[in-house]
């Protein structure tokens, strides 16, 4: 039940994701002239009558009067004119259509190639942008323009279609409308000139529009539409939780760059589409150097696979079968797709083919072997020649190593007296195996075998062997050379694979270490840019939240447009892509959990080609940088939340304190004033004097509260100005004590001031206020019969003022917190009688002078000591008095 619910949830999520943005309706035909545009315009007129906002982005009528008549009454957007090679070309005005933002846009000929200078190379990319903007699109396409059917159409018609649309575009479908016309009627339309001009029609009838071709294309169109309807049905059943849905398993296709890669990619796409399964394309590298032609084919096949919606990866290992099976096991693959591998005599003698290895070891996988046209052609030609398996460099190296071995063996035999010369040739074979591929090592082993026999086995300078032991010697040498070469080659491949994996892991580890030490967004961008430049040998540029690194880089207008596109749509763009390919940089989006966070741009030293290793490493580093950006954003949000919570707590405490501590003196003042106003004549002079003193004392008490609030506000906003002056310590303490006794006449204070204390250069009023706050706090909790003690002395050149009381004291775990604003406890030096600001203000005022305030236990464990320390500063010369 849990798995069924998870599948249902996944289906619902997929459905909701597809519903986001615009939705696409495709009018699919088997061939030109079946009436796709006519049907689309008819549907648009019906929607217009229903009140829908329909705009014609671009429609090609090709001079057909019936089709042109259907555009009457529809809003037609003016086309954009583009100058190219001395003439003007007209294309759909994408920006104008986005600005107009209709409910439905009509965009004809989805596979059309845009004029040079357009934002996108293909019209289907324009349609994707419209869909991302939330605009529904109605469009047309013929079945031969579907990317995965390109080879099938070529085999049927003999025509290679250059304008294709990736199958992944169909994932944005809402509806597919099959526009069908029997082949005989379509041919009749051709004869009538309703599809092409007469001279073009006659040529088309002899080539593309033959009855057999049209029947086959019609079948393909029907099958594609049926597959789409079937996929929609399966998705709907899964979303409704209906049983019987198969699990989605991955399809893995392996390519080798030997002339069949793109064919296999397209075939695998069709297999994955029919099975509703995710798929990926991989190649296995068993050496660190790949022939340039093979690498170019692999790059093109990977680009095609990504356009068709596949994942791509480069695997490394000494055995292709091991690498494929390990990858399949780790990624939940059910089907392996690969081209037919031809058996060779050498392979039968020493090793099994890849197909045989997979058949023997891949018992849990479905193995699909596809024979490509190139493989069949090679079979008719007798297969590849042996030297086709070797690069020119490898063959030359094998020949030179064998010749060098002959020379070294001759010198060793004549001048050193070495009898067993086979080891010289084995060393040469091992050297070749350590520097090239296994095939070159086998060639070197065979050449060394022949040279050893010809030059050093009796009778010399002939391939005949005179003694029986000589036959055994040379054949054992051949076996030893082949085994040594294979072992050396395998070890080299392992070293190469480990070196590549280590280089990527080292780069990611270095990036992670740099990002871990980045505290804010600026440091993250700087660390990411440096790591990218160091690991990829590329010029890196990043932009996140409008902040760029490095700042002030002058990007071209096209580069800016590519960067904006990548960030907005979350897709790579710029150089090495199909979107704004003329840009100077390759732009990658930085994706987070809430969409695109920013964009990074890379300009490589070798702009001609982007290696798969560079692509994978750049994408992995982009993910790490994006996660670091998310981390800094979360830290900032948490800090904001913490500050907001602390602010709210302080506000609540302030309101509670003010409402209580300010109301009490106000109530006393209002009560005394009301009594005086009502009973002035009836009161004696002493009573009136007592009420007036109450009003004065409570007013002064209220003034102290308000002054504390104002001082705390000034401290919190750095608005406290220090007007320093010289004052004696005894004068400072005496003023604070007199002020306290004026408010609390019954308090006892004992002051001890060291006789050698110098005058201090401070802000007298502020330090007096700080000492007064400490004295007032001590007086509140000191017993009536116990005095408050003040002890001032000079310790290590620092003035120390200790204010001691004999109250209940403060627990050790709360001593540091008593200096927080509004912190209240019912024990110790904090109670309900104050605002909770006195000691906080004291700490702020003393701290402004470079001093400190701390709470300590009493001398005998009873009471509390508040210690104020102040440095003895002197004014600068210009401020001396």
TrEMBL record:
Residues 657-874 form the Histidine kinase domain. It holds the Pfam family DUF4118. It is an enzyme of class 2 (transferase). GO terms for molecular function: ATP binding; identical protein binding; phosphorelay sensor kinase activity. Keywords: ATP-binding, Kinase, Membrane, Nucleotide-binding, Phosphoprotein, Transferase, Transmembrane, Transmembrane helix, Two-component regulatory system. It is a multi-pass membrane protein. The lineage of its organism: Bacteria, Pseudomonadati, Pseudomonadota, Gammaproteobacteria, Lysobacterales. InterPro entries: GAF, GAF-like_dom_sf, HATPase_C_sf, HATPase_dom, His_kinase_dom, HisK_dim/P_dom, HisK_dim/P_sf, Histidine_kinase_KdpD. It comes from the Bacteria. It catalyses: ATP + protein L-histidine = ADP + protein N-phospho-L-histidine. Its EC number is 2.7.13.3. This is histidine kinase. The chain crosses the membrane at residues 395-412, 424-450, 470-489. One of its GO terms (cellular component) is cytoplasm. It is found in: Membrane. Gene3D superfamilies: 1.10.287.130, 3.30.450.40, Backbone structure of the membrane domain of e. Coli histidine kinase receptor kdpd, Histidine kinase-like ATPase, C-terminal domain, HUPs, P-loop containing nucleotide triphosphate hydrolases. Member of the two-component regulatory system KdpD/KdpE involved in the regulation of the kdp operon. KdpD may function as a membrane-associated protein kinase that phosphorylates KdpE in response to environmental signals.
């Amino acid at each position: 039940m849990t798995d069924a619910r998870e599948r249902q949830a996944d289906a619902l999520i997929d459905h909701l994701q597809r519903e986001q943005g615009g939705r696409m309706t495709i009018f699919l035909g088997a061939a030109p002239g079946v009436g796709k545009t006519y049907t689309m315009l008819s549907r648009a007129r019906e929607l217009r009558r229903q009140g829908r906002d329909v705009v014609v982005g671009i429609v090609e009528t090709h001079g057909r009067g019936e089709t042109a008549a259907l555009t009457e009454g529809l809003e037609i957007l003016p086309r954009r004119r583009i100058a190219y090679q001395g003439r003007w070309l007209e294309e759909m005005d994408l920006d104008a259509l986005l600005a107009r933002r209709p409910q439905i846009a009509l965009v004809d000929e989805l596979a059309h190639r845009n004029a040079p200078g357009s934002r996108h190379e293909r019209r289907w990319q324009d349609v994707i942008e419209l869909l991302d903007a939330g605009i529904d699109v109605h469009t047309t396409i013929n079945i031969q323009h579907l990317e995965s059917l390109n080879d099938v159409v070529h085999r049927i018609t003999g025509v290679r279609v250059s304008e294709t649309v990736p199958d992944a575009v169909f994932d944005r479908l809402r509806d597919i409308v099959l526009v069908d016309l029997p082949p005989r009627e379509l041919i009749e339309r051709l004869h009538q000139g309703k599809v092409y001009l007469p001279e073009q029609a006659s040529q088309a009838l002899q080539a593309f529009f033959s009855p057999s071709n049209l029947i086959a294309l019609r079948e393909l169109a029907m099958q594609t539409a049926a597959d789409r309807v079937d996929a929609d049905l399966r998705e709907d059943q899964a979303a409704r939780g209906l049983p019987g849905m198969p699990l989605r398993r991955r399809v893995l296709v392996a390519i080798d760059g030997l002339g069949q890669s793109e064919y296999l990619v397209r075939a695998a796409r069709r297999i994955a589409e029919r099975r509703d399964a995710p798929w990926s394309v991989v190649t296995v590298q068993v050496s660190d150097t790949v022939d340039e032609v093979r690498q170019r084919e692999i790059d093109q096949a990977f680009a095609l696979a990504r356009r068709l919606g596949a994942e791509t990866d480069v695997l490394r290992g000494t055995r292709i079968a091991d690498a494929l099976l390990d990858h399949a096991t780790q990624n939940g693959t059910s089907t392996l797709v690969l081209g037919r591998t031809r058996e060779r005599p050498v392979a039968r003698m020493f090793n099994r083919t890849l197909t045989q290895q997979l058949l023997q070891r891949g018992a849990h996988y479905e193995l699909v072997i596809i024979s490509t046209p190139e493989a069949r052609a090679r079979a008719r030609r007798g297969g590849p020649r042996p030297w086709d398996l070797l690069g020119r460099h490898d063959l030359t190296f094998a020949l030179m190593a064998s010749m060098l071995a002959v020379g070294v063996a001759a010198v060793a035999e004549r001048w050193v007296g070495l009898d067993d010369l086979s080891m010289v040739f084995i060393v040469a074979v091992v050297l070749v195996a350590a520097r090239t591929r296994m095939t070159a090592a086998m060639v070197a082993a065979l050449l060394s075998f022949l040279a050893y026999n010809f030059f050093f086995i009796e009778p010399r300078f002939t391939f005949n062997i005179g003694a029986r032991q000589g036959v055994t010697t040379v054949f054992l040498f051949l076996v030893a050379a082949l085994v040594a070469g294979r072992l050396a080659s395998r070890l080299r491949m392992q070293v190469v694979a480990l070196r590549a994996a280590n280089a990527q892991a080292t780069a990611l580890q270095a990036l992670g270490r740099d990002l871990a030490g980045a505290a804010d967004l600026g440091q993250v961008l700087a660390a990411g840019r440096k790591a990218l430049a160091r690991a990829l040998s590329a010029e890196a540029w990043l932009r996140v939240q409008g902040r760029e690194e490095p700042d002030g880089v002058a990007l071209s207008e096209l580069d800016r447009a590519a960067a904006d596109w990548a960030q907005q749509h979350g897709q790579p763009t710029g150089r090495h892509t199909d979107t704004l390919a003329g840009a100077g940089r390759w732009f990658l989006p930085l994706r987070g959990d809430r969409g695109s966070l920013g964009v990074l741009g890379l300009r490589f030293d070798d702009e001609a080609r982007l290696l798969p290793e560079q692509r994978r490493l750049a994408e992995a580093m982009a993910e790490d940088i994006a996660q670091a950006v998310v981390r800094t954003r979360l830290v900032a949000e948490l800090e904001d939340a913490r500050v907001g919570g602390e602010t709210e707590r302080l506000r609540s405490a302030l309101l509670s304190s003010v409402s209580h501590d300010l109301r009490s003196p106000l109530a006393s003042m209002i009560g005394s004033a009301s009594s005086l106003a009502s009973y002035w004549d009836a009161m004696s002079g002493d009573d009136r004097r007592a009420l007036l003193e109450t009003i004065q004392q409570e007013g002064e008490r209220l003034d102290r509260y308000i002054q504390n609030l104002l001082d705390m506000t000034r401290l919190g906003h750095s608005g406290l100005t220090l007007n320093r002056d010289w004052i004696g310590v005894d004068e400072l303490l005496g003023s604070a004590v007199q002020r306290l006794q004026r408010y609390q006449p019954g308090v006892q204070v004992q002051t001890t001031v060291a006789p050698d204390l110098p005058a201090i250069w401070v802000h007298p009023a502020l330090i007096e206020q700080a000492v007064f706050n400490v004295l007032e706090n001590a007086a509140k909790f000191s017993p009536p019969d116990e005095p408050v003690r003040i002890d001032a002395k000079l310790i290590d050149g620092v003035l120390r003022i200790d204010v001691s009381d004999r109250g209940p004291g403060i627990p050790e775990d709360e001593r540091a917190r008593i200096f927080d604003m509004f912190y209240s406890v019912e024990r110790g030096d904090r109670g309900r009688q104050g605002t909770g600001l006195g000691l906080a203000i004291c700490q702020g005022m003393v701290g402004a002078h470079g001093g400190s305030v701390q709470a300590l236990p009493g001398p005998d464990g009873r009471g509390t000591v508040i210690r104020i320390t102040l440095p003895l500063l002197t004014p600068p010369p210009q401020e001396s008095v």
